[in-house]
Backbone:
């Protein structure tokens, strides 16, 4: 490493990087590949079903379902940006990735996670309005407002990710191309540069902290107000049902936010304390687990979506049995 070198756009970039996978756990790669395949298949199937049901059923056009549909699409993008290559590494040892493919993967990982946290905030706000201000729900969350929220979330993600990708793409790489990670995680790639990676790393840390920190605060406020309204209900059964629903929501959010932020801060503050394989597993966890659980927690546990899925399955079975006979 030569930290004194400035950014240099004329220095050659490497043709390929070599992704190690999970350092220190290479002997477990096959088992990790099996587990990852199950989770990825579940994520693809679950999110595709959610999108199909919501898009095909005209009765599921409330803002909550539209946000859920967009979240399902983002989950597919987020998981698909890393899992296929990870499976290739874990199962066959195909660890090489081109420089352009690495930057593309990095861009989609960061953009998808930034959009996901914004959507979780939008869905929390939707539930707050529905429960705490039900008479104003249709007046507040109009289709125009909902579309504006989604567009604003995407624009925010693009504004955040584009400068980060630009900074990494203009770093000079003249030494090792071995990335000690299972995907092109920003810090793992930037530290291979022959120039000081501090500007891009500091930018990533500050902007991630601002975006996630503000979203988490507003989500916490929304759910706190929701729970206050729930505890004000007279029916104990309704209270328990609401607590079960929102408790599972908070659990999924914790699995998204805690490993994600932990992986960022550990890379900065605890890199000499926390084992490298634990750091990589934390970074992998928040990209794989939420897309697997979101369609179950937010979708399949929703009564209206359950009914539509059963209707579709029964229709398909009945239609095919009639055609076969």
Residues:
């Amino acid at each position: 490493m030569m930290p004194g070198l400035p950014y240099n756009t004329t220095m050659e970039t490497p043709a390929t990087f070599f992704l190690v996978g999970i350092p220190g756990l290479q002997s477990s790669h096959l088992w990790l590949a099996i587990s990852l395949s199950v989770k990825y298949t579940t994520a693809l199937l679950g999110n595709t079903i959610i999108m199909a049901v919501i898009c095909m059923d005209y009765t599921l056009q409330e803002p909550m379902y539209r946000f859920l549909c967009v979240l399902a699409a983002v989950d597919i993008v987020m998981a698909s940006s890393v899992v296929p290559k990870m499976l290739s590494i874990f199962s066959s040892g195909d660890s090489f990735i081109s420089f352009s493919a690495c930057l593309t993967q990095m861009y989609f990982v960061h953009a998808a996670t930034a959009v996901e946290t914004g959507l979780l905030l939008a869905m929390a706000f939707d539930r707050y309005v529905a429960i705490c201000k039900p008479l104003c729900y249709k007046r507040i969350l109009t289709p125009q407002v909902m579309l504006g929220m989604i567009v604003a979330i995407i624009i925010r993600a693009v504004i955040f990710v584009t400068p980060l990708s630009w900074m990494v793409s203009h770093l000079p790489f003249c030494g090792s191309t071995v990335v000690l990670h299972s995907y092109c995680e920003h810090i793992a790639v930037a530290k291979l540069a022959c120039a000081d990676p501090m500007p891009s790393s500091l930018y990533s840390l500050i902007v991630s902290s601002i975006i996630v920190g503000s979203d988490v605060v507003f989500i916490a406020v929304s759910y706190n107000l929701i729970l206050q309204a729930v505890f004000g209900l007279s029916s104990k059964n309704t209270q328990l049902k609401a607590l079960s629903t929102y408790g599972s929501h908070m659990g999924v959010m914790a699995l998204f936010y805690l490993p994600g932020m932990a992986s960022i801060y550990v890379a900065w503050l605890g890199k000499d304390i926390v084992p490298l394989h634990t750091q990589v597993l934390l970074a992998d966890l928040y990209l794989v687990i939420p897309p697997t659980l979101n369609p179950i927690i937010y979708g399949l546990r929703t009564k209206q979506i359950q009914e539509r899925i059963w209707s579709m399955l029964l229709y398909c079975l009945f239609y095919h049995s009639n055609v076969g006979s």
Notes: The domain at 16-324 is CATH 1.20.1070.10 (Rhopdopsin 7-helix transmembrane proteins). The two ends are 71 Å apart (CA to CA). The longest strand covers residues 16-19.
